[in-house]
Each structure stands twice: as C-alpha cells, then as structure tokens.
Amino acid sequence: MANARPNVYVFQPTDAEYLGLMEDHFEGRGIGFTYLRPHVAGVNLPQNTRAASGLVLLGGGPYGAVGPPQLPARDFAVRLARDAFERGKPVIGIGLGAQILAIAAGGGAEAAPLRFAVGRATRTEEGALNALLPAEYPLAVYMRDRPRPPSYARILARDEAGEPALFQVGPRGLGFSGHPGIKSAMVEDLIMEFDEAPADTAAMLARLRSLQSQVEDALVGIMAGVLAVAGIGPAGAT
Predict the structure, then answer these.
(1) Model confidence over 132-157: pLDDT tens digits?
(2) Measured CA distances, 8 to 5, 50, 138 (Å)
(3) 1 has pLDDT over 60
(4) Average pLDDT along the chain
(5) Mean per-residue pLDDT for 167-191?
(6) Per the domain annotation, does 238 fall within a domain?
(7) Can you give the CATH number for the domain in which 156 is found?
(8) Is the N end or the C end of the chain the one with fewer CB atoms within 10 Å?
(9) The domain containing residue 58 runs over which residues?
(10) Domain count within the chain
C-alpha cells in the first residue's frame, strides 16, 4: 500500500503572508499543506501536530513575539511548535515564526522595531542544509523583534549585521529571519493590511523587485536542502 501523501500544517497569522514561491516546491514534490489561520473567526485549529507531517510558522507582519504589538495567537503557536518539536517532526520558522521556533526550542526573542530590509545572507557552514544552502543568497526581512536561538543551535547563515539569518535547532528545526520564498506582492499586501509599516518601504520594495529572479534561483537549493533535512517527501517521509 502506498504511503499517504505528506501534509504540512502552515501557521498563517496574517492574510498577506503565505508560503509564496515555496508552494511550488511543496507541490512539485507531492507535499500537501494546510493553512491554519488563527485570526479568522470561527476557524477550528488543531491542538497538536499528530496528524501533520511537519509545521511551518510564517511571519506576522507588524506583530512580534515580544511586541508590542504581540501576536495574539503567540502562545498557541508556541504550544504547537513545541508539540511538533517534541514529537521529532520538522518545524520551519520564518520571520516571526523563527522567533516562535526559538522560544519553543528553549531560546527566546528580543524586542526590536518593525523593519523591512533587503540584503544578503552568507553561509557559515559549508555543509549547511545537506550542503545545498547557497554560499550567499538574497535576504528580505519584514519583521518586528528578533529570534534568539538557544545556545545549542547551529547558525547556518548570517546577515550583513552578523545576526542569524538561518539557524538549526535539533535535527529538523530550521529558523529563517527572512522569507526564502518571498514575493514583492506579499510585502505590498502587508503594507495595505496594517496601519503600521516600516520606513523606506518604497526603496526596499524596488530593491526586492530587482532581486526577485535571484530569490527564485536561490530557493531551488534552499528548498532541496530544507526538505532533505526535514525528511518530508520522496527522500524521506515522516
């Protein structure tokens, strides 16, 4: 009997931010995904990750893990991430999601202003993501606060200020400070969805648009490495 199709929970605390370019990579490998939207009235949310193959925690626009404003569903997200982490399931945190992962894994988050920055990340370990992480890749961060990975975390890449751009906790937990599959339209929607927006959004949006093809190219290796580490899909289903 064939194995059931893997299905990943995707914690999505805002309408504007979603998997973006990552969706094609999941679909191309036969991996399903179910969005969990805590901000939608009347939605039924799972209380654990028993039925999921893994968990992705997306960013939250102007919300942070420390705030203010703090993500209203922060505690739920931490519990879900901790449940997945304790079950040995893969957890991929992006932006605010990386803060949630860091907290769930025994680290924390640090207060910082909302910012939108487009720069570069540099790999710190040649073998990062099964040696599939590019040596350098575009990094677009739209986030309030910062993740503080636990002391045992491996820092796989750093941004231009030396802050962790990608970290690994345990064998299957990965935290990205920026969205590796970002689209400029996602940022435009975040700016329209909320009253608060970072400074210099026009200049940063223009820079992101100019780098969009590089984001797409870098994501090929990043996603291959993420899924290899996570063990989801043809190379190793959960």
Answers:
(1) 999 999 999 999 999 999 999 999 99
(2) 10, 11, 25
(3) no
(4) 94
(5) 97
(6) no
(7) 3.40.50.880
(8) N
(9) 7-230
(10) 1
What is the pLDDT at residue 155? 98
Does residue 190 form part of some domain?
yes
pLDDT band at residue 3 using 50, 70 and 90 as cut-offs: low
Q: 28 vs 7, 32, 68, 130, CA distance in Å?
A: 13, 10, 39, 20
Task: Give pLDDT tens digits for 198-235.
Answer: 988 999 999 999 999 999 999 999 999 999 999 987 54
Asked whether residue 46 is assigned to any structural domain, the reply reads yes
Q: Is residue 237 part of a domain?
A: no
